[in-house]
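Here's what a typical entry looks like (Putative ABC transport system ATP-binding protein):
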Amino acid sequence: MIELKHINKYYKVGDFQLHVLKDVNLKIESGDFVGIMGPSGSGKSTLVNVLGFLDSDYEGEYLFEGNLISNLIDKKISAIRNKTVGFVFQEFNLIETQTIFENVQLPLLYNGQTSRKTKEIVQTTLEKVGLAEKGNQLPSQLSGGQRQRAAIARALINHPKFIIADEPTGALDTATSRNIMTILQELNQKEGVTLVMVTHDPNLLEYCTHKVEVIDGRVRKEERL
Ligand SMILES: Nc1ncnc2c1ncn2[C@@H]1O[C@H](COP(=O)(O)OP(=O)(O)OP(=O)(O)O)[C@@H](O)[C@H]1O
Ligand SMILES: [Mg+2]
């Protein structure tokens, strides 16, 4: 599904070029649940931003389902991103002034669907993450775990081909983390959603099918048992 070939990524810091991704070669197959680990500053978030089409400023080739993405113009990439990827972040990134229902509905409206048509889809997706009763609440009225479940519902609503989760449990306690991981694992196992998750917690690798290690910008993929 995803293939990175000889990706190099630099950040400009003043006159200096910081080499952040170093000759990265990586394949992710449909149905994989990839856990990305590595020290702070090693390039994990940079890597998933490239994978999720958020960053196209790199050298090398990105093939998605066999098509070269790295040469496309930004407008085309945004259109592909909206249809293809869902994002879950540590800080949830929900819009605080909108209800949970509206937050989850938003990607559908971006895709040009009318509000009336989306109601049922939004409700079904909220049910899937156990938030059927919480649609009318504001994010501030939910617990951290519930907010993350709302963020997962928002990531799922467009039926993305894969989901990028950058430390999705980083702000949650252990029990709540397990609950979120169970939801992600069910999506992976029952619905075949491909998942790419950054985590600092080695215990969470038990939910993954593969481990990717990022050390000083270099990347290695390993199969889990
Ligand atoms: N926008 C930026 N401009 C300049 N340097 C950056 C930028 N973003 C990240 N970096 C640098 O790139 C390197 C990799 O950062 P990245 O955020 O990918 O690390 P990470 O592995 O996700 O770390 P963490 O585990 O702390 O989240 C770091 O040295 C960081 O300082
Ligand atoms: Mg990071």
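The CA atoms of residues 86 and 96 lie 19 Å apart.

More examples are in the samples folder.
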